[in-house]
């Protein structure tokens, strides 16, 4: 029954992959989709391209898989996002197997799998064409095979794990190797360093015992060496691509800090929603009373590993919250390793009372934004959660009365809050644009790429406000996402408002706009212009 429900929910989620405007967008996805489609258009299958040139930002595995599914199912958002969806199914399978192996409880494993499947991380990155979903899979795959290797005393598992890390290089470069090296260092540190009576004791015996594991890790370099050799020897721009990728794209990020480190810490809180409080609770229990069980070693290894990867991501100049996504899955493993059941975590006072508070906030938003469906569902969430807390006497009913409203928080946000508030569909404003040249005037080229992805049969060019005459001399349509002074031979055809990605408002202005319910302060006007006599 559990697997039938999971398959049904997965099918429903898969049906949303084809919607161009994702509920939780990520800007880089626009570039990834553009690279796949451009590569298919010009037949550049081995070396993906972007804007007519070899794509220097990322290795090709995600693009190859996107092109593969586009060839099978046709060019569409569904085909391309199917890549991340399949990585998501693979991740859930690995998580289920690993959790069950650790907890030895089918019921707890099913609850944990549901919590991870309905986390903000899963519902966002397993539905977008981003590297993060695949990175979660490959990181968990190595840890899963490493754990199996230690349980079965068989080196073949860790050998396969090391080999698959090489495929991870083809996603984002050497970053996966760094993650796994930090994991192995965490394991060696826990085994080698002991504190006895206030003194550090270091044993080098684990180094000898883990010599085979460390040597097998060299298998992870086979695929990267083959790909780098191919670029260096067989492609005309290979040397320049490698130089840009390693020096500018990777090492250049460590040049100077320009973002707050709080963004990384915020990522741990953001992507564990709606189970952030239970996971903070299990972290507190581990600190307060360290476990002496058989999984204590693995628990401490993961905690050190999570600390090391956090420190690592605090070092580069960019500190985007989603950098921690490959490791969120390990937080959901902590209850199994500490033998704490999910009923205890869900029914903790802090957690259970937080659920009706969130639904009360939904009610307030529904009233302010005039969203009747959100209002009705939020009222039902309040009634169910408060009934479970104050009225239900049966512990099982009380648990599910809190658990299910909590489980549905992110899907409700997606379907009944974000969807009704989404930007208008640009394809409905440019119905007769097939075969025409469209000039997109915006602040950055990603906006034009997004328009091109949605209007596949149109020819889209990007222009800055002051250069559109030179960039788009033969344009049939102009779409202005930035304020522009056009010549008199352009006539406004239609316009709409869309949400701003970057607000130039201070806190007082934002508060005043919210109190006045003035959403125009948070939106910008987009105009469509066509050639014709000025009326």
Summarize the main sheet: 5 strands, mixed
Poorly predicted runs are: none
Give the DSSP E fraction (strand runs of 2 or more residues).
Answer: 5-15%
- C-alpha Rg, in Å? 26 Å
Structural class: alpha/beta
Mean pLDDT: 91
User: Which overall shape is indicated by the principal axes computed on the Cα atoms?
Assistant: globular
Strand order of the largest sheet: 6-5-7-9-8
- The number of helices is 27
Number of strands: 9
In short:
It is found in: Cell membrane. About 60% of the residues lie in helices and about 10% in strands.
Key features of this structure:
535 residues; alpha/beta; 3 domains; 5-stranded mixed beta sheet; two-stranded antiparallel ribbon; 27 helices; 9 strands
């Amino acid at each position: 029954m559990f697997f039938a429900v999971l398959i049904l929910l997965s099918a429903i989620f898969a049906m949303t992959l084809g919607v161009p405007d994702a509920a939780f967008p990520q800007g880089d996805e626009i570039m990834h989709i553009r690279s796949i489609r451009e590569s298919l258009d010009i037949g550049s299958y081995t070396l993906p391209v972007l804007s007519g040139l070899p794509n220097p930002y990322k290795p090709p595995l995600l693009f190859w898989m996107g092109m593969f599914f586009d060839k099978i199912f046709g060019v569409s958002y569904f085909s391309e996002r199917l890549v991340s969806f399949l990585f998501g199914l693979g991740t859930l399978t690995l998580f289920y197997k690993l959790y069950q192996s650790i907890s030895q409880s089918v019921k707890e494993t099913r609850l944990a799998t549901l919590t991870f499947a309905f986390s903000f991380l899963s519902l966002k990155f397993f539905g977008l064409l981003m590297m993060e979903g695949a990175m979660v899979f490959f990181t968990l795959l190595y840890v899963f095979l490493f754990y199996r290797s230690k349980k079965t005393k068989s080196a073949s598992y860790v050998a396969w794990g090391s080999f698959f890390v090489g495929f991870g290089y083809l996603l984002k470069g050497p970053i996966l190797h760094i993650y796994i090296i930090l994991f192995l260092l965490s394991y060696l540190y826990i085994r080698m360093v002991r504190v006895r009576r206030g003194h550090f004791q270091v044993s080098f015996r684990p180094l000898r015992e883990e010599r085979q594991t460390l040597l097998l890790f060299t298998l992870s370099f086979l695929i990267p060496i083959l790909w780098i050799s191919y670029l260096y020897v067989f492609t005309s721009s290979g040397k320049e691509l490698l130089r840009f990728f390693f020096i500018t794209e990777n090492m250049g990020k460590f040049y100077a800090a320009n973002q707050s480190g709080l963004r990384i810490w915020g990522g741990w809180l953001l992507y564990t929603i709606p189970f952030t409080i239970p996971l903070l609770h299990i972290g507190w229990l581990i600190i307060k009373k360290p476990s002496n069980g058989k999984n204590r070693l693995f628990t401490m290894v993961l905690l050190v590993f999570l600390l090391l990867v956090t420190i690592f991501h605090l070092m580069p100049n960019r500190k985007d919250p989603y950098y921690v996504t490959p490791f969120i899955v390990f937080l959901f493993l902590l209850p199994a390793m500490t033998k704490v059941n999910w009923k205890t975590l869900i029914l903790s006072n802090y957690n259970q009372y937080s659920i009706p508070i969130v639904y009360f906030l939904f009610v307030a938003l529904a009233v302010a934004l005039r969203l009747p469906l959100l209002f009705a569902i939020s009222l039902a969430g309040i009634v169910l959660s408060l009934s479970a807390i104050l009225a239900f006497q049966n512990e099982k009913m009380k648990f599910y009365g809190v658990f299910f409203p909590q489980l549905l928080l992110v899907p409700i946000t997606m379907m009944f809050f974000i969807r009704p508030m989404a930007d208008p569909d640009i394809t409905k404003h440019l119905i007769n644009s097939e075969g025409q040249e469209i000039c997109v005037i915006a602040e950055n080229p990603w906006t034009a790429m997004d328009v091109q992805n949605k209007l596949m049969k149109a020819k889209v060019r990007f222009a800055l406000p002051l250069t559109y005459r030179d960039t788009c001399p033969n344009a049939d349509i102009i779409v202005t996402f930035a304020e522009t002074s056009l010549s008199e031979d352009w006539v406004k055809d239609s316009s709409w408002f869309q949400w701003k990605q970057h607000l130039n408002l201070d806190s007082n202005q934002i508060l005043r706009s919210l109190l006045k319910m003035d959403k125009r302060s948070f939106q910008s006007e987009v105009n469509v212009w066509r050639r014709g006599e000025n009326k």
